[in-house]
């Protein structure tokens, strides 16, 4: 499970991030969830292998008590999926150890406002990863 945080602003224009960190500052405008109990390397190996395929469509469903949002993006062979605390979804094609998907159709600033308001109140965030 992931939690919201009072400092979530969800203003970043090219990424959104979920982190295992428990605290964030207001300048962390891409972070939409904290205190994650799962890191990239915890994902099943079959899922990681599928994410590393260039044509894999990845859907991320974000759900709070009052809202659900769906983000679509793609996998890539350059994704190492090894960062120990952060999972980042990007609109660009930039890859690093934190990147879960590229060419996402939404960033933090594009998420449903009801979802963001729940997160600002510290509500739980359910993150579901679907691959096709």
Q: Averaging pLDDT over every residue, what do you get?
A: 97
Approximate helicity band = 10-25%
Q: What's the CATH architecture name?
A: Sandwich
- The number of helical runs is 2
- Poorly predicted runs are none
As a percent range, the share of strand residues is 25-35%
Determine the CATH topology.
Jelly Rolls
Total of domains: 1
Strand order of the largest sheet: 1-8-4-5
- Rough outline: globular
Short précis:
The chain is mainly beta and 132 residues long. It has helices spanning 45-51, 113-120, and strands spanning 2-3, 15-19, 31-33, 57-63, 68-74, 86-90, 99-101, 124-131.
Structure notes:
With 132 residues, the chain is mainly β. It has one domain: Jelly Rolls, CATH 2.60.120. It contains 2 helices and 8 strands; from the N terminus they run E-E-E-H-E-E-E-E-H-E. Strands 1-8-4-5 form a 4-stranded antiparallel beta sheet. The protein is globular and about 35 Å long.
Features:
132 residues; mainly beta; Jelly Rolls; four-stranded antiparallel sheet; four-stranded mixed sheet; 2 helices; 30% strand; globular
Secondary structure: elements and pairs:
Elements: E1 2-3, E2 15-19, E3 31-33, H1 45-51, E4 57-63, E5 68-74, E6 86-90, E7 99-101, H2 113-120, E8 124-131
């Amino acid at each position: 499970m992931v939690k919201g945080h009072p400092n979530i602003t969800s203003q970043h224009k090219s990424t959104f991030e979920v982190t295992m960190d428990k605290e964030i500052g207001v300048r962390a405008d891409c972070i939409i969830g904290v205190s994650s109990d799962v890191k990239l390397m915890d994902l099943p190996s079959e899922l990681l292998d599928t994410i590393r395929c260039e044509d894999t469509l990845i859907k991320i469903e974000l759900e709070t008590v009052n809202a659900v949002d769906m983000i679509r993006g793609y996998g890539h062979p350059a994704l190492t999926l090894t960062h120990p605390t952060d999972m980042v979804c990007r609109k660009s094609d930039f890859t690093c150890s934190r990147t879960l998907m590229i060419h996402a159709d939404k960033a933090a600033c594009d998420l449903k406002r009801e979802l963001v308001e729940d997160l600002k109140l510290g509500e739980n965030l359910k993150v579901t990863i679907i691959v096709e």
